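A quick word before the example. In earlier lectures we treated sequence and structure as two separate objects. From today on, think of them as two lines of the same record. Here is Arsenate reductase ArsC written that way.
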Amino acid sequence: MNKTKVAFICVHNSCRSQMAEALAKKFASDVFDSFSAGTETKPQINQDAVRLIKAHYGIDMEATQHSKLLTDLPPIDIVIKMGCNVVCPYLPSRHTEDWGLDDPTGKSDAEFLAIIAQIEEKVENLANLIRNNEL
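And the structure line, produced from the sequence above:
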């Protein structure tokens, strides 16, 4: 049986969606395959996100991830929108939800860590829903 494919999407695929992809690979890779993408790309992942994810989880996002477009993704089962505060990208799937997370770009480490904690909790909840065939 193929694992469920989950895409975390936002406009630039440089911060929240990248952190979600990294944390989902760490905490839910036994349940679903994780991807991230956006309608635009950035030359590098947000450096505060890179630094904090590396410091708190030991994950070097720059070694395994890069900013990608929606068209770079395989067919996706579940789309998670990060909370774009603009018209969010559209990607066909069997389920879509919006996590409504604030963009921590340019904000303090404390604000970044609060968003990271929310992402980790939401990833774990999503994994449980998929594991229990509720999604």
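Notice the following. The chain has four helices and four strands. We will return to this example when we discuss secondary structure assignment.
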